[in-house]
Amino acid sequence: MDIFNGRLPLFSATSFLFFSKGGETQQLIHKLKYKGHKEIGLYLGRMFGNQLNGSELFRTADIIIPVPLHPRKEHKRGYNQSLMIGEGMASRMNARVFPDVLYRKIHTSSQTKKSRYERWENVKDTFEIKKGERLERKHVILVDDVITTGATLEACGNKLLEIPHIRLSIASLAYAQG
Description:
Rossmann fold, globular, alpha/beta, 35% helix, two-stranded antiparallel sheet, 178 residues, 5-stranded parallel sheet
């Protein structure tokens, strides 16, 4: 995935679906994120996990890390959609989900109407690690729902890459080409 070239040293990156405004993928993501249909994340995550399990680049993954929501936003939504996707993936892969390693320390505003630079500014110092030693010498897949500019995943990825000897990959349910 070229969006991260020169920005983040990744082992691999992929997306399961293509996101376009008004398309079916947007409708699914909207139901997952805003309408309480967490089963969509689990279902699509299982399908994605099956696909990744057949890939030389992803089948060696040990751990899946969902992009965290701020606790306030997760409480309001009732769940983290990236965690639902990650749990679905893990159920089909030989990997475990660690939802507590990466956390969002700052509540940020929505990114949907921000430019690429504004998105980066909005999230650059937002994430922290706890008990990161559990990821040392592991192949980790960082999971998110949609990649738009990649700012959130870049901020999360840079934080995870502070852990010694980690091999980092990214997997998103959908990719929205800018």
